[in-house]
Design brief:
The complex is a heterodimer of chains A (472) and B (159). Chain A is built from 14 helices and 13 strands. With 472 residues, chain A is of the alpha+beta class. Chain B has 159 residues and is an alpha+beta fold. In chain B, a hairpin with a 2-residue loop joins strand 1 and strand 2. Classes of the chains: A alpha+beta (472), B alpha+beta (159). The complex binds zinc ion. The site of zinc ion has 8 residues of chain B, from strand 3. Chain B: This is SWIM-type domain-containing protein.
């Protein structure tokens, strides 16, 4: 057990429970606007005008002030144009960006980890704007209809835009969010009969998508290259009906001897909704050798791998080769505490984006009914076991039996929570590590093999059908 | 944060490669047992249970005259596997009374209302949605991060 007062590497969980100044006010303004979107802006009511004014008031001291004030006024009169909707989305994103920043500095204090300098982003490429305009037009239709007004006609408007965007990597980011969002809305139609509207969530997706329709906004340009040793910590998996994304969190040790840095490497793929769970690895695996290295418990040697200001490696296998064995728990114990954390790009600052790798041990596990908590030096940290993917061997039971954990600290529903990526447990007096991403590169586990086989069969059937029917 | 729609459950696709709850219908594509070039496009509307079944070449299904054909029954069975019986029951607005929701009870409850045949106008759009679905396999993966996927975490909840 590590003593709680030891500097460097031990998380100050007590700091995570401290109130953040201004957070409530910012979230109140966000919520006021979010309620506006529930009934939509086709025929705005006085309550909606008040919600719009509250949003405008919250950014009154910012450079957005006059544009948002005008947009709020037009929207309240039911005459908002597309630029006005984008301005409202921008105000909402800016407010949540400030919440992100406050939470991130609180986390920096808690982890004691250095934060990198902000880099001036390279200008992003600009792409064909007509598809972006089509996407924006659909999002404006949604805002006018409101969540209670959505029906199949409104929602299906996204399908054509998404189909046109998906093949082009430059549009993949926006297409992926629109696709997942539209599927969720479609499953909730008609909006008039919805019992519960996921108000914050849909406003999040709506406002982010609206900003991504601004030409150049979705670009993630590389600002340099990375040469050195990459030490994986764990894999975070994301999935909606028609997309999967694996994000590997790792410590990068530059060959030039400069300070180690926290980085990510990401691979995503569109998928049919019937390819789920363990099946998604076989779509992702062929495009990032890092997934195999993760399963084998290896480091990876990078040569000139492009990297963004946010610490995202823009992976291509030609810049990587398998390195020496590297235990993620050794990385977490030794290299993680001093690794410099990257600064998030302004547009991406949002509490949901917070995913800070941490290493914890010597905690007490508390379970009651459905929830699991780690008491870290006497302070409770909720553990989000629902986020442990079924596509790997890590289970809530293993987490509950653990004595050491690599995880991501996130912020959800008003509090910090821990998403476990890997744990150490004791079996027959030996320490056993279980990793959520262990099957990323393949598995010999019986259940894993069976699920992979089922997914392979599913893909084979679809490819056969596609071969016969698609090209006619 | 949590996703609104639970993930689909894995199922074998050989017989019914495509099923969805969309456009106010349970709809999908059923492979022909005798001709590998042929598929049936089948659907049942929510609320009215108006049903339709025809081939991808727009020929009406012989089994769907006045009654749910085997393709529609297979579609219901696979929808229950993929989405769970509860969600299928809810989407189609089927009143099961005290009965447990299963593919069988859902189909029976719908046929008991004497649903009518729908025109096959939806078939073209269902088939094009199926082709769109297949096209997802043709799209190349990307290693550019999609930060918005943070809104779509995995969940251990099942449909
Ligand atoms: Zn039929």
């Amino acid at each position: 057990m590590v003593p709680a007062d030891q500097g460097g590497g031990v998380m100050r969980a007590d700091l995570l429970a401290e109130p953040v100044a201004g957070l409530e006010e910012a979230l109140d303004a966000v919520e006021a606007f979010d309620r506006v979107l529930v009934s939509g802006l086709l025929r705005p009511q006085p309550a909606q005008a008040a919600g719009l004014a509250e949003l405008a008031g919250a950014v009154a001291g910012s450079p957005l002030a006059s544009r948002v004030a005008e947009a709020a006024e037009k929207a309240a009169a039911g005459t908002a144009g597309e630029d006005h909707f984008v301005a409202l989305a921008a105000a909402r994103v800016a407010l949540l960006g400030s919440v992100h920043d406050a939470l991130t500095s609180q986390l920096d204090e808690a982890t004691g980890r250095p934060r990198g300098e902000e880099a001036a982003p390279a200008p992003a490429e600009r792409h064909a704007v007509n598809l972006l305009a089509a996407a924006r037009s659909w999002l404006c239709d949604l805002a006018r209809a409101g969540w209670q007004g959505i029906d199949h006609d409104v929602v299906s408007g996204a399908a054509q835009v998404v189909s046109a965007m998906l093949p082009d990597p430059a549009f993949r980011r926006l297409a992926t969010v629109l696709d997942g969002f539209a599927a969720e809305l479609a499953a909730s139609c008609p909006g008039a009969s919805l019992d519960q509207v996921p108000v914050r969530r849909w406003a999040d997706l709506w406002s982010r998508a609206a900003l991504l329709t601004v030409p150049g906004a979705a670009g993630v340009p590389a600002i340099g290259t990375a040469t050195g040793r990459l030490l994986p910590l764990g894999v975070d998996l994301h999935e909606h009906a028609t997309a999967a994304q694996a994000q590997v969190h790792a410590v990068f040790e530059p060959a030039d001897g400069t300070a180690p840095r926290l980085v990510r490497a990401t691979v995503s793929a569109p998928k049919p909704d019937t390819v789920v769970g363990v099946g998604v690895w076989q779509l992702l695996r062929p495009h990032m050798s890092l997934l195999t290295a993760v399963s084998e418990g290896r480091s990876v040697d990078l040569v000139d791998m492009p990297i963004t200001a946010e610490g995202d490696l823009l992976w291509s296998d030609e810049h990587a080769r398998p390195g020496e064995p590297a235990d993620p728990f050794a990385t977490a114990r030794v290299a993680l505490p001093t690794a410099v954390a990257p600064v998030t790009a302004p547009l991406d600052r949002h509490p949901a984006r917070i995913a800070v790798p941490v290493f914890l041990e010597g905690y007490e596990v508390h379970t009651d009914d459905e929830s699991l908590t780690f008491a870290v030096a006497g302070h409770a940290l909720a553990v989000d076991t629902d986020r442990v993917p079924t596509a790997g061997p890590l289970t809530p039971e293993a987490v509950a039996a653990s004595h050491a954990c690599i995880g991501l600290v996130r912020w959800d529903a008003g509090a910090f929570r821990l998403q476990p990526l890997a744990v150490e447990t004791t079996a027959r007096k030996k320490t056993v590590a279980v990793h959520a991403g262990a099957w990323a590169g393949g598995t010999k586990d019986k259940a894993g093999v069976k699920a992979e086989k089922a997914a392979t069969d599913a893909v084979a059937v679809l490819r056969e059908r596609a071969g016969r029917l698609l090209r006619k | 944060m949590a996703r609104v729609v639970p993930p689909a459950r894995p199922r074998k696709l050989a017989k019914v490669p495509f099923v969805e709850l969309a456009d106010g219908r349970l709809q999908g594509v059923v492979s022909s047992g005798s001709d590998i070039e042929r598929v049936y496009v089948s659907s049942v509307a929510a609320g009215t249970y108006a049903f339709a079944c025809s081939t991808n070449n727009n020929r009406p299904c012989g089994g769907a005259r006045g009654w749910f054909c085997n393709h529609i029954r297979a579609l219901i069975t696979e929808a229950v596997l993929q989405y769970g019986a509860e969600r299928v029951t809810r989407y189609l607005r089927v009143d099961l009374g005290d009965e447990q929701p299963t593919a069988h009870t859902i189909a029976d409850a719908m046929t008991a209302t004497g649903p009518s045949e729908a025109s096959s106008t939806a078939a073209a759009s269902v088939f094009s949605r199926f082709l769109r679905h297949l096209a997802y396999l043709e799209l190349a993966p990307s290693t550019l991060p999609v930060p918005e996927m943070q809104w779509f975490p995995p969940t251990r909840a099942v449909a």
